[in-house]
Amino acid sequence: MDIDMAKRTDIEDYAISRKIVRLMREGYPQKQATAIAFRMFKDGELNIPSEQNRRSNQQKRREAFRRRMLRRRNR
Predict the structure, then answer these.
(1) Which residues lie closer than 8 Å to 54 by C-beta, 6 or more apart?
(2) How far, in Å, are 14, 66, 67 from residue 60 at the CA level?
(3) Is residue 2 in some structural domain?
(4) Residue 57 lies inside a defined structural domain of this protein
(5) What are the distances in angstroms from CA 73 to CA 6, 29, 65, 66, 67?
(6) SS3 state at 14
(7) How big is the CA angle at 10 (ends 6 and 11), to the nearest 5 degrees?
(8) Alpha carbons 31 and 23: distance in angstroms, whole number
(9) Is the distance from CB of 33 to CB of 67 less than 8 angstroms?
(10) Degrees, nearest 5: CA angle 12-14-15
């Protein structure tokens, strides 16, 4: 799979940055985590969510947060 690195979309950049953060939390140094994430992107191993899927997940998280906050207020 041949990917033009100069033409990444915002969602691809987001997925790469989230993978870097996850790898750093697992204990990899930043430079190594960055190299791993970009290699995974280049090889097509990185899960790139669709924009619609991402928005749907954001909306679900917001709703769950609102419900938790309402429950706390009503205690």
Answers:
(1) 11, 14
(2) 19, 10, 11
(3) no
(4) yes
(5) 48, 42, 12, 11, 10
(6) helix
(7) 115
(8) 11
(9) no
(10) 65
Specify the length of the chain in residues: 75
The number of distinct structural domains making up the chain is: 1
- Which amino acid would we find at residue 61? R
Can you tell me the distance from the alpha carbon of 62 to that of 9, in angstroms, rounded to the nearest whole number?
Answer: 24
The residue segments making up the domain with residue 26 are 7-73
pTM above 0.85, yes or no: no
Confidence (pLDDT) at 5: 58
Q: How far apart are CA 65 and CA 63, in angstroms?
A: 5
Q: What is the pLDDT along the chain (75 residues), one digit of tens a residue?
A: 555 556 888 889 989 999 999 999 999 999 999 999 999 999 999 988 776 676 788 888 899 999 999 888 887
